[in-house]
Design goal:
Strand content: under 5%
Helix content: 55-70%
Distance between the termini: 22 Å
Mean pLDDT: 77
Number of domains: 1
Order of helices and strands: HHHHHEEHHHHH
Structural class: mainly alpha
Radius of gyration: 18 Å
Number of strands: 2
Largest sheet: 2 strands, antiparallel
């Protein structure tokens, strides 16, 4: 199917859902969530995209993919992510952790067959997840209002800006820009596999969220904000709610990465895991599309 023809109905649906959400609201938005009209409309779009496209693909992927292959694919993209993690360690003045993550990348890239095997884990080099949004928070950049991004899911102005920094630190970005047609096709295919693999790992978290909450929007918003506070402060948070619900090691968002960045709603976005005390596999509770 021509991608242009596919994008038109998706874009039309997004615009329509946001317009209807704005028309349906007769009361002013609360001061704590001034973009609630946009956010609800975008989350509805994301949830629909996830329900009809992303989730079925992830279920099929889980069904046909052997566990060792699934783990290998997850490890490969996690290893690529360690490049950005190492730089963000340095930006946040975490020099000891940056050494661990750089060593982790080198060991897995060589002894771990390009990262498909997590050999570094056996050398007591745990996985960390630092992203550029956390780096901005470390240097005092305020989060801003809660914002749901199309395809990605829960975010904020600061973390949206952080996505640009994460893309700049990801080598796959440059392969996509400077590679030829065949290379671009392979890269696009790799990103698609990463998204589906990421979404497949969120099935359990999504079920927990759906069964334990009444208001999905408020639950996603609260979990996302608490998780980001937890990560930026390296696990020091005054809130008692489980911060792992939307962590990049256990993800689900609004509809289609982020990278995580991945939230529970449908998106694939971001949220990393801060310091050594937060060492964990990868992923975040975001069910929106590509990272």
């Amino acid at each position: 199917m021509n991608m242009q023809n596919l994008n038109k109905p998706l874009l039309s649906s997004l615009i329509l859902s946001i317009t209807l959400a704005g028309c349906a609201s007769t009361t002013p938005p609360p001061p704590s969530d001034p973009w609630t009209g946009w956010n609800h409309g975008t989350q509805d779009f994301n949830d629909g995209l996830d329900k009809h496209i992303l989730k079925p693909l992830a279920q099929g992927y889980q069904y046909i993919t052997p566990t060792f292959v699934n783990d290998g694919i997850t490890n490969f993209f996690s290893n690529v992510n360690d490049i950005g993690v190492t730089f963000n360690d340095l930006f946040q003045l975490k020099f000891s952790q940056s050494g661990q993550d750089a060593s982790r990348f080198l060991i897995n890239t060589t002894a771990g067959a390009a990262g498909f095997i997590d050999v570094a884990n056996y050398f007591d080099l745990p996985k960390h997840n630092e992203d550029f949004g956390q780096t901005l928070g470390f240097w005092g950049v305020p989060s801003g209002n809660y914002l749901v991004l199309p395809f990605y899911g829960p975010s904020s102005p600061r973390d949206t800006l952080g996505l640009i920094g994460d893309a700049a630190l990801n080598p796959i970005t440059y392969v996509s820009i400077f590679g030829g047609g065949v290379v671009n096709a392979i890269t696009a295919g790799g990103r698609a596999v990463d998204v589906v693999d990421h979404r497949a790992e969120l099935m359990t978290k999504e079920k927990i969220l759906d069964e334990s909450t009444v208001d999905r929007y408020d639950s996603l918003k609260s979990s996302y904000q608490q998780n980001r506070e937890y990560l930026i402060n390296d696990g020091k948070t005054s809130n008692s709610t489980d911060p792992d619900l939307l962590d990049d090691s256990s993800d689900t968002s609004g509809s289609g990465k982020g990278k995580g960045g991945a939230s529970t709603g449908t998106g694939t976005g971001q949220s990393g895991s801060g310091s050594a005390t937060k060492a964990q596999p990868r992923k975040s509770l975001k069910l929106s599309a590509p990272k």
